[in-house]
């Protein structure tokens, strides 16, 4: 019978480099303890890189840049997918993703319907905050980001330039979806969103 380590290695080799793995991916191969030991050995062999506790990467290397690490967002989405949870970026992170700020936050905060927790990834942190279903009911990913970004800016603090940028972003979206999602936002945000698509 093939060792747990070799079975895990052949499984990860079925995926492209850059793929994120969790111990749960290998649950059918062996006991929890055997899986952890095998992952640790594969890390020593350079087949995997441990991004955080229980989160591994099959590294993709660039001849000039070295290992290409996934973004915080890719890691957060992989965790959400594993947990079958919905997530939506908030705060400065939402502003950054929309290009409304060039500031890159050290901590990425997401609203989720999954378990609340914090995960340390190198020097950065991913924080999942439990929220009510209404906040995750948006149909458009961009609309969700706009709502969270505006909440971060605050009522009355949205600059002319930010209004303009948001209008440009929402003009690219499906207006029916914008109308649907605007209804889930506070009244002042709803007005900004609906004005953007008029």
Overview of the structural elements:
This protein has 198 residues and is of the alpha+beta class. The chain folds into 2 domains: 4-66, Arc Repressor Mutant, subunit A (Orthogonal Bundle); 86-197, no CATH class. Helix content is 43%, strand content 18%. The protein has 8 helices and 9 strands. It has helices at 4-12, 32-44, 72-82, 91-98, 141-153, 160-171, 175-182, 187-197; strands at residues 20-21, 49-52, 55-57, 60-62, 66-68, 87-89, 107-112, 117-121, 124-130. The strands form 3 sheets. It has a 4-stranded mixed sheet. The protein has a 3-stranded antiparallel sheet with strand order 1-3-2, with helices on one face. Strands 4-5 form a two-stranded antiparallel ribbon. A hairpin with a 2-residue loop joins strand 2 (49-52) and strand 3 (55-57). It is elongated and about 65 Å long. The termini are far apart. The relative contact order is 0.10. The mean pLDDT is 94.
Could you provide a short overview of the structure?
This is Type IV toxin-antitoxin system AbiEi family antitoxin domain-containing protein. The chain is of the alpha+beta class and 198 residues long.
Could you give the topology of this structure?
Elements: H1 4-12, E1 20-21, H2 32-44, E2 49-52, E3 55-57, E4 60-62, E5 66-68, H3 72-82, E6 87-89, H4 91-98, E7 107-112, E8 117-121, E9 124-130, H5 141-153, H6 160-171, H7 175-182, H8 187-197
Parallel strand pairs: 7-9
Antiparallel strand pairs: 1-3, 2-3, 4-5, 6-7, 8-9
Helix pairs in contact: 1-2, 4-5, 6-8, 7-8
């Amino acid at each position: 019978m093939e060792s747990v380590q070799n079975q895990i290695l052949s499984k990860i080799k079925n995926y492209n480099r850059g793929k994120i793995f969790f111990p749960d991916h290998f649950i059918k191969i062996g006991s929890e303890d055997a899986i952890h030991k095998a992952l640790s050995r594969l890390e020593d062999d350079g087949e995997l890189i441990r991004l955080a506790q229980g989160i591994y990467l099959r590294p993709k290397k660039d001849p000039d840049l070295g290992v290409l690490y996934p973004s915080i967002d890719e890691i957060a989405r992989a965790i959400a997918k594993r947990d079958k949870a919905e997530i939506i970026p908030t705060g400065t992170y939402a502003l950054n993703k929309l290009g409304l700020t060039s500031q890159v936050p050290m901590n990425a905060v997401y609203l989720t319907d999954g378990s609340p927790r914090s995960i340390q990834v190198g020097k950065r942190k991913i924080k999942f905050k439990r929220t009510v279903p209404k906040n995750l009911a948006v149909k458009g990913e961009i609309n969700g980001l706009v709502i969270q970004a505006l909440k971060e800016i605050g009522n009355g603090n949205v600059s002319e330039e930010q209004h303009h940028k948001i209008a440009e972003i929402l003009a690219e979206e499906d207006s029916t979806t914008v109308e649907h999602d605007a209804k889930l936002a506070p009244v002042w945000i709803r007005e900004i969103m609906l004005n953007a698509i008029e």
